[in-house]
Amino acid sequence: MIIEMKAASIYQQKNLVLQNVDITIKPGEFVYLIGKTGSGKSSLLKTLYGDLPLKEGEATVADFDLNAIKRRKVPFLRRKLGIVFQDFQLLTDRNVNDNLLFVLKATGWKEKTKIEERINEVLKSVGLENKGYKFPHELSGGEQQRVVIARALLNEPDLILADEPTGNLDPETSEEIMKLLFDISKKGKAILMATHDFHLMQKFPTRTIKCEGSTVVEVNGTPNTAFQNITSPSSEENRMEGENL
Does the pLDDT of residue 233 top 50, yes or no? Predict the structure, then answer.
């Protein structure tokens, strides 16, 4: 399993957010993560990439034991993960190539030729092979999100954690990003994607888990069933959830 959690409890400081969490996700599996604003989706993702410590229960992510991991080892965990955010988080003072170069150097790449080859590979994989010289403000929202996905792929991760990756995109561009993510999943990478987009779930149905009642449950049935009692939050609510949970 690329993710395995057993009887896990997730805290924000001293506040219990989720308890008795049992999750398994296999390599190459695409899974939606849904739930009301404030239900703990962001806290779960932050725990998986080592931003929140796991205090109770058991969890392994990409062969890292989250119970035993030391803070100095968290960067090594993150090298086996790709993280895709809703708000891109690109460095605005440098072009696409230099955004990717920054990540590679930060994760220990040194050989110039290999760095250039890897940047070209990931940009080609997301359909941006001729956009490396562009700055973020010169790209559309969809193109910026493709750069973010390329950045997530740089170190050939086993798992991609995507937090509302289509939240700031129009419907047509959102579908393009979803097709790209599903193509990546078919190549063997697991993807866990937090979303509020009911229509995308209808168009791209797959396994769904839900933060509900202070735990995480498996959803059976249609996307309509999955989204019962969930309303689409505003962007401000999304921002607050990211900060607080």
Answer: no
Task: Tell me which residue range forms the domain holding 134.
Answer: 87-156
Q: Which of 108, 141, 156 is the last residue of a domain?
A: 156
Q: What is the CATH number of the domain that holds 216?
A: 3.40.50.300
Residue 15 has a CB neighbour count (10 Å cut-off) of 10
**CB proximity list for 175: less than 8 A, separation 6 or greater:** 200, 203
8 A C-beta contact, residue 163 and residue 242: yes
Q: What is the pLDDT of residue 13?
A: 87
pTM of the model: 0.87
Instruction: Examine the domain organization and report whether 8 and 21 are in the same domain.
Output: yes
Are 106 and 164 contained in the same domain?
Answer: no
Sign of CA dihedral 111, 112, 117, 118: positive
Per-residue pLDDT at 225: 54
Cβ contact 3:47 at 8 Å: no
Q: Which of these three, 133, 156, 179, is where a domain ends? A: 156
Same domain, 173 and 196: yes
Q: Which of 45-59, 103-117, 145-159, 213-227 has the lowest mean pLDDT?
A: 213-227
Listing DSSP states for 85-121 in one string gives ETT----TTS-HHHHHHHHHHHTT---HHHHHHHHHH
